[in-house]
Amino acid sequence: MRATMHITVLGAGIAGLTTAWYLVRDGHAVEVVERNSGVALEASFANGAQLSYSYVAPLAGPSVLPKVPPWLLRRDAPLRFYPAFDTRQWRWLLEFVLACRRGTSELTTQRLLSLSFYSRALMHRFVSEEDIDFGYARTGKLVLYSAQADFDGARRLLDFQRSLGCEQDALDRAQCVALEPMLGDSRSLLGRRIVGGIRTVSEEVGDCYRFSRGLEEKLRAQGVVFHLGSHVTGLETRGGRITAVNTATGSLPTDLCVMTLGAQSPVLSRTLGFRLPIYPLKGYSLTLPPRPEGASLGISITDATRKVVYAPLADASKISLRVAGMADISGYSNRIDPVRVKQLFLEAERAFPAATDYAPGPDAMQPWTGLRPATPKGMPILGASPFPNLFLNCGHGALGWTLALGSARILADLIKGATPEIALAGFTLPR
Ligand SMILES: Cc1cc2nc3c(=O)[nH]c(=O)nc-3n(C[C@H](O)[C@H](O)[C@H](O)COP(=O)(O)OP(=O)(O)OC[C@H]3O[C@@H](n4cnc5c(N)ncnc54)[C@H](O)[C@@H]3O)c2cc1C
User: Fold this and answer.
1) What residue stretches are annotated with the FAD dependent oxidoreductase domain (predicted)?
2) How far from 171 is each of 151, 168, 183, 195, CA to CA, in Å?
3) Could you give the residue ranges of the DSSP H alpha helices within 99-246?
4) 71-75, 161-165, 302-306: range with lowest mean pLDDT
5) Is the per-residue pLDDT at 142 higher than 80?
């Protein structure tokens, strides 16, 4: 076992904060460096809020390739590609296409499930020991299908998923409506078009930003130093080791660093001479305020056809509805595209017309965009880097909230010199 050290965590999204959490519990002196004025203001701010432990199949899969051409041609498609003169974008796309092979995608699913189940166990321990109010609820999840062929395909996958430990069952349309009465609203286009759904009772929801703020408070109370508003410009090296973190405001000496910079991780890694296969997949969300006396969703929902997720989030006496979706391969800009926001708004209005008062329009529903730090295969990158005292915890794509605690515990174990509780095959930096 290594001795305790002075460790610097680069980035204060959910990956950085959870890493700091386990490091400080292992007795290390921890500093967190973040360019924004607060924690979790980027991808971890208003994500889909689903703790999606059983739904980890990567975007890259055999069924996705035939859908890509029509998606690329439609302006309202869930996935949109904006070609750029950027070799990083094209290389990522090529690797994504190669990862769509059935064998690759099934192996990725198996590996991600081991990490997600581990993360779930850690989340259960966390909520039983700590008292952060983040709208955490064990709602279960219903994934809805509008085309019979897609539903049949999902049913065929049930046995495979069960063999890996998922607790799921198939429901016909009437059973879906009985489970979630808002789908029975005669104005709900989603309710009318579905042919069936897959229910997973063990899925959960929670607000990643509120969790992050609560964690920040706990970390400060345990002596973690936060350098907010500090942009990391580079890392100083001597004799092949990192010696200090350079920021726009000064240099911070360190024994060891953990890179948790989300979609920006490859930008820093390039300055150190190594490539991380991470590219931003831009997504959007809205947070719908409840009607004063209105009904709210009792279960988390995924519209598999339109690739939109709905999660009820409780805060004090009200339950808001987080609606998230879209995957735009459009570079690093986090500009909010009003056309995409309007599309998401219309999806929500057509799916759950009674969920809120839609009259004020999307601008009244906290429109937000974030960059998922996506790897082509959908596997995060955990552990060693080419530098012995620089560790990686990045590239969690669409599952960074779900996988946060497991990934962070693995990092802390590796730094401690202990064997992580799940196998690391496939999670490490490709050489
Ligand atoms: C629309 C949408 C919906 C999603 N829904 C879900 C969901 O339902 N469930 C789920 O599990 N996941 C979901 N995700 C994915 C999840 O939100 C991300 O995987 C996760 O937030 C990534 O966390 P992170 O800490 O790696 O990155 P970030 O949260 O982006 O954190 C990286 C931090 O590094 C900082 N940083 C970057 N560069 C520098 C620098 N040079 N110097 C200093 N600081 C720097 C950034 O400011 C940022 O705070 C969703 C994502 C999106 C966009």
Assistant:
1) 7-414
2) 10, 10, 13, 9
3) 102-129, 148-163, 173-179, 189-193, 208-221
4) 71-75
5) yes
Question: Which of 80, 113, 139, 261, when mutated, tests ligand 1's pocket best, judged by the most ligand atoms within 8 Å of its CB?
Answer: 261
**Is residue 379 lining ligand 1, measured as CB closer than 6 Å?**
no
Q: What is the DSSP letter of 39?
A: S
| Secondary structure of residue 318 in the 3-state scheme | strand
Which amino acid appears at position 86 of this protein? D
Average pLDDT estimate for 402-409? 98
Q: Tell me which of 34 and 2 has the higher pLDDT.
A: 34
C-beta 372 within 6 A of ligand 1: yes
Q: Where are the domains of the chain?
A: 6-44+210-277+377-416, 50-204+279-374
- Residue 322 beta carbon below 6 angstroms from any ligand 1 atom: no
Mean pLDDT of all residues in 181-196: 96
Mention every residue, 6+ apart, whose C-beta is less than 8 A from residue 360.
none
Pocket test for ligand 1, best of 35, 123, 313, 328 (most atoms within 8 A of CB): 35
16 pLDDT more than 80: yes
Q: What is the DSSP letter of 247?
A: E
**Closest approach atom of ligand 1 to CA 371:** 53
- CB 369 near ligand 1, within 6 Å: no
Q: How far from chain centre, in Å, is Cα 330?
A: 18
Is residue 34 within 6 Å of ligand 1 at its C-beta? yes
| Model pLDDT, residue 66 | 83
Using 50, 70 and 90 to split pLDDT, how confident is the model at 249? confident
Q: At what angle do helices 404-416 and 102-129 cross, to 10 degrees?
A: 90
Q: In CATH, what number does 6-44+210-277+377-416 get? A: 3.50.50.60
- pLDDT, residue 45, reads 98
The finding on whether 344 has its CB within 6 A of some atom of ligand 1 is no
Q: What is the mean pLDDT of the chain?
A: 94
> CA–CA separation, 107 vs 378, rounded Å?
11
First to last CA, the chain: 26
Does the CB atom of residue 398 touch ligand 1 within 6 A? Answer: yes
Helices (H), 36-86: 68-73
Fold adopted by 50-204+279-374: D-Amino Acid Oxidase; Chain A, domain 2 (3.30.9)
